[in-house]
Backbone:
């Protein structure tokens, strides 16, 4: 294709700001993570010792790290399954033409606008074992007072629920947009052919929604693996006994609390490889198994 | 064109005049105290600035101790570290190894600043003495004491001895719960600090190589009988529902459990005296304090200094170094020392302050402020009570807290401690290698 720019310099000049910002805040730190992952480093790199692949070997032979990986997978599965199904349900209801639908829709999106720290604090207030509203109500009505933050299973349940709630708004917006693109005539035709509402949903709406659902699947997976650091930090700090110590939190702990910059860099490289994997998966599969209508 | 030039020149002249008029030696001070303590520090700094016209200290709150230390590391890498850094006791080895700090004694000697070290309490100096040299300036010093709700204990018909045992705590907890006056017996933040204090009380070094003071430590003594005894007792309290877990490193939640009278006892830092007494006064009940409990049949060896100290970074002009040194010396002068003690509960660092407080009748009126000082004064001088030095203290604390959580989760005490020891020993050895020690 013929270039429309008068000179070769102009496009470069226009790209320069983007390249500068990306270079400073993305590519340079990325390169540094790769090189630091081969070091044992302390004090943000004031002291370093070359150790080769030792960090990686230790990570993959450490039961704690493998456990953290397992927890992350369980956590992500919970967040993705619960998050997508609940938000699809809500989106279906919110898509109906009722009075005040706009108000409901706005209210549904609110949680997404909260910062993770604020959301975490709200949940902590609600579920505080000794002073929380939830336990107050439970104690008065059912007579139980579960220890939400110190029991392993309850803690992970709490974090998953909070993470799902936090991301509901995002999912609902996309599902609503998807639902509004489902052509009314197709559903009408199906109904005339005698399909039940349930069958209509499974055979018509859902396939037409699949591009949205698939996009959300990937985004929620990325969110569950990398975006919930703030919630974990506020709610459980990775505890009790590492029950909520997901990969991204483990990385933070090693870098900012344990001062192990090399080990943390190796973990960030591993996470980077995982993101690349997710993204490739997204590019590969979209357009093949997913129905885009038309 | 000429006119523009003249205006610019005039502007520059006025500007430089202003700069000259304001030329004060600026000292940047980062600290880790929030809330009322931040306000108090600001008042002390303002007073210093008023009485030292040539110096301007700028105080900034930088978050928790860990956050403050991280911020200082990042600033040091970027070449603009603060002149004075407030850091916690367990960061001492890291701060030494970072190589960006000047030793307190060296600065004092070089700039001829006067500081009457002999007037300071010895244990407070000792913690921050490395190889006999004063590395930093002790400042907010604390240790852990036992708080109890006298009103609730009276209702349950029990009394608290001045030096309770582990067994006393179990008996009193059961008594208050059985009498129905409180939900639980005792609480303290799920924090490794208390475990460390108990190790010292039982006369056990936390780390080998004389608690890391004769060389980099390579092993933690978690399989010492003392460690096992402490953990077993903690497990018993948890299993019987006598200890209420406020959550990991959760100081405020522990305080809330105690001040809302859900529990009858709390172990916490002496720096909580002020807050706790105010809450008790508002709630109409009486708070008492006692020494840390120890198991029956063990000798009481004393406690380790907690809290923080002030560090000077190197690489500034002579004027700044001298000003910074004057400032840190000012912060623990008798007048400031007394204000700080009375407003927080951190103990007074100076012998003169203690005498003045005594003369003033302060301790008679407020006996709870005295407990920590007494506990410290009665501590034996040893490497156990001098406290452990390690560059991987954050790891040590994380793994000890993990172990405690595993124990409540049902793991056996020795299994949990063995696992923690393995992880901590690895971290200690790695650190030693990294520092070329």
Residues:
């Amino acid at each position: 294709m013929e270039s429309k720019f008068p000179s070769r310099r102009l496009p470069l000049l226009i790209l320069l700001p983007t390249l500068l910002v990306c270079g400073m805040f993305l590519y340079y730190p990325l390169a540094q993570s790769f090189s630091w992952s081969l070091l044992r480093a302390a004090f943000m790199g004031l002291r370093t010792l070359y150790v080769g692949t030792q960090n990686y070997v230790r990570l993959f032979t450490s039961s704690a790290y493998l456990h953290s990986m397992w927890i992350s997978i369980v956590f992500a599965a919970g967040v993705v399954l619960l998050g997508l199904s609940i938000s699809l349900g809500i989106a279906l209801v919110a898509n109906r033409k009722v009075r005040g639908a706009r108000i409901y829709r706005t209210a549904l999106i609110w949680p997404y606008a909260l910062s993770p720290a604020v959301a975490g604090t709200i949940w902590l207030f609600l579920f505080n074992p000794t002073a929380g509203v939830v336990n107050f109500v439970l104690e008065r009505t059912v007579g139980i007072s579960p220890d939400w933050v110190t029991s392993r299973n309850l803690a992970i349940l709490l974090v998953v629920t909070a993470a799902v709630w936090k991301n509901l708004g995002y999912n609902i917006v996309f599902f609503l947009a998807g639902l509004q693109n489902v052509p009314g005539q197709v559903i009408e035709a199906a109904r005339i052919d005698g399909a039940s509402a349930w069958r209509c949903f499974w055979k018509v709406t859902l396939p037409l929604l699949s591009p949205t659902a698939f996009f959300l699947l990937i985004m929620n997976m990325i969110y569950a693996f990398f975006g919930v650091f703030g919630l974990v930090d506020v709610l459980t700090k990775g505890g009790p006994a590492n029950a909520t110590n997901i990969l991204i939190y483990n990385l933070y702990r090693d870098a900012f609390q344990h001062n192990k910059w090399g080990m943390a860099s190796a973990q960030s490289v591993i996470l980077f490889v995982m993101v690349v994997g997710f993204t490739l998966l997204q590019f590969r599969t979209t357009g093949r198994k997913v129905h885009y209508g038309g | 064109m000429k006119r523009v030039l003249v205006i610019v020149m005039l502007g520059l002249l006025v500007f430089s005049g202003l700069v000259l008029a304001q030329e004060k030696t600026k000292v940047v001070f980062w600290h880790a105290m929030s809330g009322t303590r931040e306000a108090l520090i600001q008042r002390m700094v303002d007073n210093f600035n008023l009485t030292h016209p040539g110096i301007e200290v700028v105080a900034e709150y930088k978050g928790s101790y860990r956050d403050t230390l991280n911020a200082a590391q990042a600033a040091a890498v970027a070449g603009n570290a603060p002149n004075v850094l407030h850091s916690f006791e367990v960061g001492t080895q890291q701060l030494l190894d970072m190589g960006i700090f000047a030793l307190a004694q060296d600065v004092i000697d070089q700039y001829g600043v006067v500081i009457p070290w002999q007037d300071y309490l010895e244990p407070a100096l000792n913690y921050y003495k490395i190889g006999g040299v004063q590395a930093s300036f002790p400042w907010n010093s604390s240790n852990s004491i036992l708080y109890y709700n006298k009103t609730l204990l009276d209702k349950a018909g029990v009394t608290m001895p001045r030096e309770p045992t582990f067994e006393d705590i179990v008996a009193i907890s059961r008594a208050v719960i059985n009498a129905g006056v409180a939900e639980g017996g005792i609480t303290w933040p799920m924090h490794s600090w208390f475990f460390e204090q108990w190790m010292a009380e039982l006369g056990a070094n936390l780390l080998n190589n004389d608690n890391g003071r004769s060389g980099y430590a390579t092993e933690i003594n978690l399989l010492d009988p003392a460690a096992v005894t402490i953990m077993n007792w903690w497990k018993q309290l948890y299993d019987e529902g006598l200890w209420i877990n406020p959550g990991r490193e959760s100081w405020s939640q522990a305080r809330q459990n105690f001040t809302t009278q859900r529990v009858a006892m709390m172990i916490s830092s002496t720096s909580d005296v002020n807050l706790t007494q105010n809450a008790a006064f508002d709630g109409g009940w009486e708070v008492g304090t006692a020494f840390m409990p120890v198991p029956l049949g063990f000798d009481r060896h004393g406690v380790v200094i907690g809290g923080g100290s002030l560090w000077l970074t190197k690489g500034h002009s002579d004027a700044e170094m001298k000003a910074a040194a004057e400032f840190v010396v000012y912060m623990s002068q008798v007048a400031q020392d007394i204000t700080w003690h009375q407003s927080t509960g951190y103990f007074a660092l100076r012998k003169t302050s203690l005498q003045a407080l005594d003369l003033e009748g302060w301790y008679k009126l407020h006996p709870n402020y005295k407990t920590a000082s007494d506990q410290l004064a009665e501590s034996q001088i040893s490497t156990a009570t001098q406290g452990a030095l390690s560059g991987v203290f954050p790891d040590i604390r994380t793994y000890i807290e993990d172990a405690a959580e595993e124990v409540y989760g049902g793991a056996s005490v020795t299994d949990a401690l063995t696992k923690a020891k393995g992880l901590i020993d690895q971290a200690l050895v790695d650190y030693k290698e990294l520092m070329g020690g």
Residues 63-94 of chain A form the longest helix (32 residues). The CA atoms of residues 38 and 54 of chain A lie 7 Å apart.
